[in-house]
Amino acid sequence: MKAAPEAQLRLLDLQELDTALDRLDHRRRALPELAEIEHAENRLRELGDALVAAQTEISDIDREQKKAEQDVDQVRARADRDQKRLDSGQVSSARDLENLQSEITSLQRRQSDLEEIVLEVMERREEAETRLRAVEADRETGDKALAELTARRDAAYREIDGEAELTKQARAGVVTDIPGDLLKLYDKLRDQQRGVAAAALLRGQCQGCHLQLNTVELNEIRAAAPDDVIRCEECRRILVRTKESGL
């Protein structure tokens, strides 16, 4: 392949710009905020699950408390009815009176036990409410942290995208100075060589694979026409001759 020396030199400018774009792309994908955002989102999902669990627990406790209070009311109502019967004098039989008094005493004990259960359930509800408030506070803190991280990420994106846009504009200007067939080869090698398609020959060393060329190879390059497109024998990248090539 043939190309004017000036066009070949422009390949180095193009390579530098493309390398800069690759770095910007890597920087965009490797922003520390991305990992922090993922962690924050996972934490918020955990807190969401914890919130549902806390709300469900309170709902279950409320049903339990309602049932316990209903049991207390039923026992109290029955004890009140028995007490009224006892106070009314309607029961005259000594045995019936004894049985009624015994039942009232039993109902009072049962009411006391049930009231203890209600108090215990109420205490559990207070504890559950405390846990719920703690989860809600953690989630609010997590939401704020995620918002801050997202804002930092978006600001970094804007900065990177701005640099990338300027670099792309500069690249477009360089591309116009490079023949189509040379540019096609460059693009093909970029895909094959992990982004580096053109490298300078610097003091007898390929700057693509960083290997020193032997005497035979250097003599072949010295003998080549200025517009010959040279390839590194080791890495097959386009080898661009410069004033510092050592030829």
Describe the fold and architecture:
This protein is mainly α. It folds into two domains: 5-25 and 179-241, no CATH class; 31-175, Helix Hairpins, CATH 1.10.287. The chain is built from five helices and four strands. It has helices at residues 5-29, 32-88, 94-175, 180-192, 215-223; strands at 198-202, 205-206, 230-231, 238-241. It has a four-stranded mixed β-sheet. The two termini are 21 Å apart. The relative contact order is 0.15. The mean pLDDT is 94.
Known CATH architecture of the largest domain: Orthogonal Bundle
Distance between the termini: 21 Å
Tell me the overall shape. rod-shaped
The computed structural class is mainly alpha
Structure described in brief:
The protein has 247 residues and is mainly α. It has helices spanning 5-29, 32-88, 94-175, 180-192, 215-223; strands at 198-202, 205-206, 230-231, 238-241.
List the helices and strands and how they pair.
Blueprint: H1 5-29, H2 32-88, H3 94-175, H4 180-192, E1 198-202, E2 205-206, H5 215-223, E3 230-231, E4 238-241
Parallel strand pairs: 1-4
Antiparallel strand pairs: 1-2, 3-4
